[in-house]
Amino acid sequence: AGAGNGSPGRNYLVVFGMDAAAGLLAETDPATFRSGHDDLRALLRQGPGHGVHLLGWWRGLRRLADDLGGTQNRDDVACLVALNVPGTELGLHLGVHDLAYTPRADRALLVDRHDQRVRLIVPFARDGHGSDGQE
């Protein structure tokens, strides 16, 4: 995108099951003394300014928080989509104490920190899967 008009392009790193890489992220490079966690955190903090974005999927909020380095780094995630995460647990991670959210089938919660927006979304629908009665 934008390669021909002089504007910087955007690159997206898409990773499914990111929590499965916890062992690799914890390893330290003997030459640089940096771990994969260090590189992940640098990507989240500095990547967007250079047109590099991570679209990652973690199977659990706890693993995501651990990979980010705890709640002190939660602001490095500008946007997230939560599926099947209890509202109280998600609120604690985000530092939002009044988050009223209950997980439902075929629904997710979009949290956009740039726009200060929290919205219920339908991220996908399966063919032949009936509606849960709500539009």
TrEMBL record:
Top-level taxon of origin: Bacteria
Protein name: Cell division protein FtsK
UniProt keyword list: Cell cycle, Cell division
GO BP field: cell division
